[in-house]
């Protein structure tokens, strides 16, 4: 999974990126500090994998990972190439979802490219640039379909679908919110539009605001906007996340407890991202390795096995499955086997979040 971190210059994108990836991306108090996108891989926190590692003491423990891409700050006119905008927009196209960082604090020492703090204005600026970039893409798609329709009338429907979408975009609305049939939505999805990508708003607060974010007016405005769009908003404090990132497990837990929170902004962001993209994790365990594997909810056993190796899918025989909670209840795989708790599942089995699986295959 690849998440693109976007927003106006100087809203805290690179500070947040540094905190959650420890990648050391440059962060400075001036626009266009980030020119090329920084990329960082982040381990997905999973207490189930930690418990399996305690049980097996494997040579290796491998968590699932998320790739974060810190994309340079967009400005007005990005869709027309302002501020190297075309390059930045192409970087967003490569991502599965967008984390839109919105500044929700006042600080005269941190320059705002628009001169003041206004999260909804900032969101509108980014949205408009993405919509305008999509307008250009849709116009090209319509032109291509019109030419193809001269030789094959089936392309006339494509012209109709994208012409309707174009009118919607020209009203400043995102492709995500366009109401159409599932068949037409599948057709639109082939166009790789920026405003089709699911969005999570990361409301970046200062330390005081983060401790009482539900009462911060800036945050409430972003929350209201997200609700209207069917999007999610996650409160974060990039500065605090940077401090949390420097701590080990026990120190981190104590720090979070002092703040009165149970999990970091990163943990909340990852959970929200998984839910947004319909992802789950299954687990494999043993003395050599305990590992978490990310799949789409609804994936059947052979395709889940293919995540490990294509031979597993091609030669799939069966999956030996136990739910994580069931294993923890009896304490060991041997006890689970004695009690007949390990199920044998075939090709039609839909893998569930937290399943611990041993795949049997023959190639």
How would you characterize the overall build of this protein?
Helices cover 43% and strands 19% of the residues. It is α/β, with parallel strands linked by helices and 363 residues long. The strands form three sheets. The chain has a six-stranded mixed beta sheet, with helices on both faces. It has a three-stranded mixed beta sheet with strand order 3-9-8. A three-stranded antiparallel beta sheet has the order 11-10-12. α1 (13-21) runs parallel beside α9 and α4 (119-149) runs antiparallel to α5. The longest helix has 31 residues, at 119-149. The two termini are 29 Å apart.
- Sketch the major β-sheet: 6 strands, mixed
User: What percent of residues are in strands?
Assistant: 15-25%
Helix proportion = 40-55%
Topology order in helix (H) and strand (E) letters? EHEHEEHEHHHEHHEHHHEEHHEHHEE
- The class by helix and strand makeup works out as alpha/beta
Number of strands: 12
Instruction: Please give the radius of gyration in angstroms.
Output: 23 Å
Helical stretch count? 15
Placed side by side, the strands forming the largest sheet appear as 2-4-1-5-6-7
Please tell me the overall pLDDT.
87
Overall, the morphology is: flat
Uncertain segments are 23-35
The rounded distance between the terminal residues' Cα atoms is: 29 Å
